[in-house]
Amino acid sequence: MRCQDVLQFGQKLVYRQLLEPAEEYESHVAHLNILDLVVLGVGSTLWAGAYIMASAVAMHIAGPAIIISFLVAALSSLLSGLCYAELGARVPSSSSLYLSSYVTMGQLFAFITGWNFILPIATADTACVAKAWSYAFDSLTGNHISQGLQSTFSVHMPYFLAAYPDFVALGLVLLMTVFTGLNLLVLSFILLSGFIKGDLHNWQLTEQDYNSAASGPNGTYSSEGLGPLGSGGFVPFGFDGILRGAALCYYLFSGFAVIVNKGNMLIVFPIRGKGARNPQRSIPLSMAISIFICFLVFSGVSASLTFMVPYYQTDPYNPLPQALLHVGWAPASYVMAVVILCALLYSLLGPMFFMSRMTYAMADDGLLFRELARIRAGTGTPIMATMSSGSLAGLLALLFKFHDIVELISLGILLAYTIMPFSVLVLRYQPDPNSSKNENTKNKSEISEREPSSSKPGPEAGTSNVLKLLWGRVNTSPTQKSGRIAYGCALLLVLLLTALSLVLAQWPRRVFSGDPVCTTVAVLLLVLSAGVTVTIWRQPQGPTPPPFKVPALPVLPVLSIFVNVHLMMQMTTWTWAQFGIWSAIGFAIYFGYGIRHSLEDTDPQPPASNS
């Protein structure tokens, strides 16, 4: 009896949902063209909080080389976006990443994906915008709000929390208003002012410049309020700073999800008689264009900011108005602060909507409490999911530092978007579920026919069969056996790439300087990863291709996994600790409630461990 209970418990952990065929219906989304998708992608990616983020990264992590950090982040997000496009075509849903994890890896991994989307990505994103708005509003009052709150609450706050509870940010999350159309004004003015009032010498700073900035009246010296100098110049914190900056800037490009969701609605739900509009071209092209535009904007604003102000003197909380003050444009700084306030309020809508939908999807599947899936009659709004996720976002904005929230978002985004290429690797090589029974019957009949004349194979024959199975591409269509091979190889590949990224992140100088131990380990991991990748490539792909296919499979998904994991390794220990605490809370909810109330009994499916 105990063995049976353990077996049932394990089957629940790896239970997978079936992909249901989509039914056509008329939708105005079918009228979207490439230009429409680009506008959607750019509009959902550009938000005013990115300017505060750029200042913090430039001041403490990358310096003027933040431009290169944005380039690395943009290329990495493009790789993930292409994988997300295929998943969105297979699973056209507002929570397609969560659902694709359910389909690919089973219930436990789906819960991990959805749970870690709720806090580090959706909820923390809302809190991050709220903190940025609070900083901008505080600057208009001459910092009187922060000074008053800090003097009142600072003594009672633990060291790992913010210096004071941010009631302004809490109130903002609960009471937000829509302001739109102001982002372009901010961008245009900052780009113009940066190249008018900027100084190229700020990209060539030396220790003498730093000492001059730290020198006070009467020959005193104080570096208070200044960021670190590093080695000066354009790349003051080296290649490590560029990678760490790219890891933190990665989530700024996550707006491509809108292109995928809207574009795949065009593919899966076309107007009858009109058909879809070349998804193989429209989705990747619009995604690449929108990411490129956002890269130009973010890097342009960062260049303007570091042109106007030395990177170690930028204000990490209110950079743009303070930069205008630094160059003598005081009236413009106040106008800029008001405009940023309005733009940040508008930016709150996206994450607030997304996190409520993700919470509702998980609760509807029974993985979270059923009350969170309650729909308000008449409006169809998941009221409990919206209120609970909004309250959690307000709590984060109230207590935690802006920089800690940003790191938590970036880690969650990178982890979730690593699941995308993994899911593509697994799903593309899986057989059609409807043909599984026929295949099992066929295999049994073939075995029974061979049994009378078969003899016990020798070890050479066994080795030959294994190599032929791994490298020989025996069948033109995937089978359950080839699907299991692809699944196992994908898991092994993630482990190998994680180990390789850890070695490169912890001991980069020893690896590239020729240290015998570190270099040998890195080369061995690289060779093994290449061998596993070739094994996946040799397996037959599914007979029914999705409307959009990732090019260069399996190289592109493998490259995406490696880049994302390597950027994750740039995060601090404290960020990983926060992420671990949130994950532990999630596991307690899942094993205490979700695993007993999920809907796995309504649609029996072979467990993911058999794939």
TrEMBL record:
Principal cellular location given in the protein's record: membrane
Location within or outside the cell: Endomembrane system
Region (Disordered): 434-461
Magnesium recorded as keyword: no
UniProtKB keywords: Amino-acid transport, Glycoprotein, Membrane, Transmembrane, Transmembrane helix, Transport
Domain Cationic amino acid transporter C-terminal, residue spans: 548-598
Transmembrane segments: 37-59, 65-85, 97-118, 167-192, 287-312, 332-354, 375-399, 405-427, 485-507, 519-538, 550-569, 575-593
Membrane topology field: Multi-pass membrane protein
Compositional bias annotation for Basic and acidic residues: 439-453
Keyword Transmembrane: yes
Cellular component, GO annotation: endomembrane system; plasma membrane
Superkingdom of the organism of origin: Eukaryota
GO MF assignments: amino acid transmembrane transporter activity
Family (UniProt): Belongs to the amino acid-polyamine-organocation (APC) superfamily. Cationic amino acid transporter (CAT) (TC 2.A.3.3) family.
Protein name as catalogued: Cationic amino acid transporter 3
Source organism (scientific name): Camelus dromedarius (Dromedary)
